[in-house]
Amino acid sequence: MASGPSEKGRTIRLSTELFLHIELIVYVALGILLSVTALFSLGSAALLLLEGMRDWSGTRAVFLMVDRLMFVLMLIEILHTVRGSVRSGTLTPEPFLIIGLIASIRNVLVITLKSSEMTSEGHGAIESEMLFRSSIIELAVLGALILIFVVSIYMLRRGRPDGSERASS
Q1: What is the dihedral of CA 88, 94, 100, 101, to 10 degrees?
Q2: pTM of whole model > 0.85?
Q3: How crowded is residue 41: how many other Cβ atoms within 10 Å of its Cβ?
Q4: How far apart are CA 15 and CA 24, in angstroms?
């Protein structure tokens, strides 16, 4: 007996349902891991805040805390993207652009911190000049990237037919 079209359709439907369930399980596991990571990072930022309050003369703890908080924002935005993907079944580009924007701003902060540490440590003139030049080039590239992200987000939001700022949460 040859298998008929109804049996083939049933097999396709069952395999599709199986893959949808597996995808949902992976999304839930990813969401849990992202949530736990965000909570640990937030706790770490709180500890850095306490450390910074003890040492008022240094700015390192403040930069590290802001860096950690930017990381938490990235995780939350990724978590929002995963939640939206599970709900709607589609991926939208805007959350990824926002994650890229936050990551670029975070890198600007890290470069600024490293540059200020290197100059305060009193390295040689040639080494300081090379660091300054490479930092300026990297900051210029990141600045251009930030501008591209902002313009892209603006264009995506402007192109929405309903004019909403963000998909409903």
Answers
A1: -140
A2: no
A3: 19
A4: 14
